[in-house]
């Protein structure tokens, strides 16, 4: 398959599926592991896998690191350590529904950042698509309660997750703006490595990771393996490929699919969505398609079947 815009869409959807599944799998990881320790174990597996793949596919080139080491460290700290640390820690006091809604605002902030950097406003159709998909996500994750005017309370965890979502927006835009002459695989590998190192230092500072890992259950360790390989290695790589091919703004709108996939997994586990959630799913997909503008559903499915 060629690295076309349509392929980038498929890869981005796969990435968001893995991230959506992380919501459920993370519950098993945190059942017996503290948040920073679970994050470190997750990226321990992820870094090993991504560098094995990098060495086999492209080789490890020191000139790429020498040219971008500063960007890799900063983006790894913000997009890997910052986002994932905020996610794990924030969920300790944040309501999962509220947390998902906060994370769903990431495409908007990413598009705003990209517009500021390039000094141009997004097209009207992209703005309309973002608004519609965000409203759809709000219906899905609040089960329609947001529309009914329910009281909204901001917990400490909510603010932490919001800061993490801003970090992911900076990461999404930054890998396209600040990283030079590096492939998506190289960018993923090096930012993930430096992010994992930063996570490790934080874990040793606030927790006792070695002791915590020894008391972790088999299910928690297995969950970390899944999150590390699927929800980190594959997801980060495919997401970065989408950013390089299509741009940060056009790729970021797909982040709205994360809670949609999370809901689908819940349905497979026996939780049936309400009518308002079903409407929200349709609105989210319509908003993404509208934001794509030039790619229709018919063209997308024809491309997938043809390849």
TrEMBL record:
Membrane topology: Multi-pass membrane protein
Zinc keyword on record: no
InterPro entries for the chain: AA-Vitamin_Transporters, EamA_dom, EmrE-like
Domain EamA: 7-141, 156-290
Cross-referenced PANTHER family: INNER MEMBRANE TRANSPORTER, S-ADENOSYLMETHIONINE_S-ADENOSYLHOMOCYSTEINE TRANSPORTER
UniProt name for this protein: Threonine/homoserine exporter RhtA
Family of this protein: Belongs to the drug/metabolite transporter (DMT) superfamily. 10 TMS drug/metabolite exporter (DME) (TC 2.A.7.3) family.
Source organism superkingdom: Bacteria
One Pfam family matching this protein: EamA
GO cellular component, one term: plasma membrane
């Amino acid at each position: 398959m060629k690295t076309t815009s349509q392929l980038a869409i498929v890869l981005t959807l796969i990435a968001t599926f893995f991230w959506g599944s992380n919501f459920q799998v993370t519950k098993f990881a945190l059942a017996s592991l503290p948040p920073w320790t679970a994050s470190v174990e997750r990226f321990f597996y992820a870094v090993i896998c991504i560098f094995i793949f990098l060495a086999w596919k492209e080789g490890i080139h020191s000139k790429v690191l020498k040219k971008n080491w500063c960007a890799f460290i900063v983006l790894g700290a913000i997009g890997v350590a910052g986002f994932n640390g905020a996610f794990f820690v924030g969920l300790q006091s944040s309501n999962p529904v509220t947390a998902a809604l906060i994370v769903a605002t990431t495409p908007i902030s990413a598009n705003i950042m990209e517009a500021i950097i390039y000094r141009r406003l997004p097209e009207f159709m992209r703005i309309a698509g973002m608004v519609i998909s965000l409203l759809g996500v709000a219906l899905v994750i609040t089960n329609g309660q947001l529309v009914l005017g329910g009281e909204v309370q901001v917990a400490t965890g909510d603010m932490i997750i919001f800061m993490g979502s801003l970090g992911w927006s900076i990461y999404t835009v930054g890998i396209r703006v600040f990283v030079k002459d590096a492939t998506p695989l190289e960018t993923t590998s090096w930012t993930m490595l430096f992010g994992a190192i930063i996570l490790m230092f934080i874990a040793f500072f606030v927790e006792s990771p070695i002791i915590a890992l020894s008391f972790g259950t088999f299910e928690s360790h297995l969950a970390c393996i899944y999150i590390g390989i699927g929800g980190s290695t594959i997801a980060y790589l495919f997401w970065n490929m989408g950013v390089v091919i299509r741009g940060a703004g056009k790729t970021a709108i797909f982040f709205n699919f994360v809670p949609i996939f999370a809901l689908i997994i819940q349905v497979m586990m026996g939780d049936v969505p309400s009518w308002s959630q079903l409407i929200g799913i349709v609105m989210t997909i319509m908003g993404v398609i509208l934001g794509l503008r030039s790619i229709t559903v018919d063209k997308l499915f024809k491309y997938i079947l043809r390849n």
